[in-house]
Amino acid sequence: MAVHNQVQLITYPDSLGGSLQTLKKVLDEHFHDIFKGGIHILPPFPSSGDRGFAPLTYFEIEPAFGSWEDIKAIGAKHDVLLDVMVNHISRQSAYFQDFLKQGRRSPYADLFLTLDKIWEDGQPVQADIDKMFLRRPLPYSTFTIEETGEEEKVWTTFGKTDPSEQIDLDIHSDQVKRLLTEIFENFRNNNVKIVRLDAVGYIIKKLGTSCFFVEPEIYGFLDWIKELADSLDIELLPEVHAHYNIQYKLAEHGFWIYDFILPYRILDTLVNKNAKALKEYLITRPAKQFTMLDCHDGIPVKPDLDGLIDTKAARELVDTCLERGSNLSLIVSDEHKDADGFDVHQIRCSYYSVLNSDDDAYLAARAIQFFAPGIPQVYYVGLLAGENDEEGVRRTGEGREINRQNFSVGEIEQALGKSAVQRLLALIRFRNEYDAFNGDFRVLESASHEVRLEWTKGDLRCTLQLDLGTNRTVIDYVDADGTTVQFVV
Length: 489
Known about the structure:
Blueprint: E1 8-11, H1 20-30, E2 38-41, H2 68-75, E3 79-85, E4 88-90, H3 94-102, H4 126-130, E5 140-144, E6 151-155, E7 166-168, H5 174-189, E8 192-198, H6 217-231, E9 235-238, H7 244-252, E10 257-259, H8 262-272, H9 276-284, E11 289-291, E12 299-300, H10 311-323, E13 327-330, E14 344-348, H11 351-354, H12 359-371, E15 375-379, H13 380-383, H14 390-396, H15 409-415, H16 419-433, E16 440-443, E17 450-457, E18 460-467, E19 472-478, E20 484-488
Parallel strand pairs: 1-2, 1-15, 2-3, 3-8, 8-9, 10-11, 11-15
Antiparallel strand pairs: 4-7, 5-6, 12-14, 13-14, 16-17, 17-18, 18-19, 19-20
Helix pairs in contact: 8-9, 8-12, 12-16
């Protein structure tokens, strides 16, 4: 299949109405002419943590959300995108629970990355760990095997608890490859069209390296899984937060990539009223990307923009975000911080709030996103112009909850009355329906306080003009009769 060049929605299975069945109803009743492209449903599987990202199994849907029939029904009208956490699975999964009981005698033992697969004697060496790009202070957890009383150390890249809820898989294992094959076949049978390879950058652990996007070894896995996906007519979207050079290498290998640079670039442009860096970036970036402003995590900073931003200016922008209610995710490893100590991994916020809940600034941001070449994705909170959920952060102690609130059907209908939401829906319709977006893109000459972008295809042309002084955004386009029409965003 080819990915449809139309705006996609990102949502949790229970965020728009409480279940998959209600999600379908909301899509049909309120957004039937909006999301003709894909729906990225964040992990709907039974999970023991990280809001779905510690899956127990991929062969069931969490009953509280619905069933595979609901996924299949949504997939009949939309390109459904689901995640596979290729790096890990839940500690509570039947596979790992059997390993905890039987140890190396378990039929599932080879699924997991025990430390003897890294260090020959199974004993971790701190000097090796110091080189790694860590997501927690220690990249492993220690477990006691029930039947033997022996200790087993198993790699755990992610997780806030010790032992972690997220157990790393050994992607070199034939067992893991069989499991992934069965997962993908089940996806194909249930109308799943696109798979995001979550945390794929962490799958290769090699001593002497950062254990992040280890080349060339990672391409062996990516080539294998691409061949599997191609055979089932499934598109792949690797999710890699890394130096932009790595993203560009993925693009050269023919993969879709995420534009994790664009959200920061647009924010910086609108806050500092200067489009120079944004326009330079739009001229040079690869076109085969999924674009986003907001997501379930935050606005990427490090390592995605390493080498692209001045840390002094970045600190000032981060301080502005904090003043507007954002919170931060920070880099753990000293070696991977900047020389001056700058350590911001992500800025966590609602994109609407970080633009001071200014409708014109927010619509300007979306207009730039939609004009940037690629497949635009809109996160459900951004769709409804939702603001920072500070109460959710206080209640859970989890900073990412600032942008993860659920909406009831009544709250969705209430949000649809907002001017910002109606303007956004009109912009999405235009982006979906105007065929010039399937043509050629140019960044037009303009002053530093302006953005002028253009798409052309045959006689069709649309031009975006944004004045950063006022945030007034206008699209001039040629209609089917050859008449130039002005659309004030």
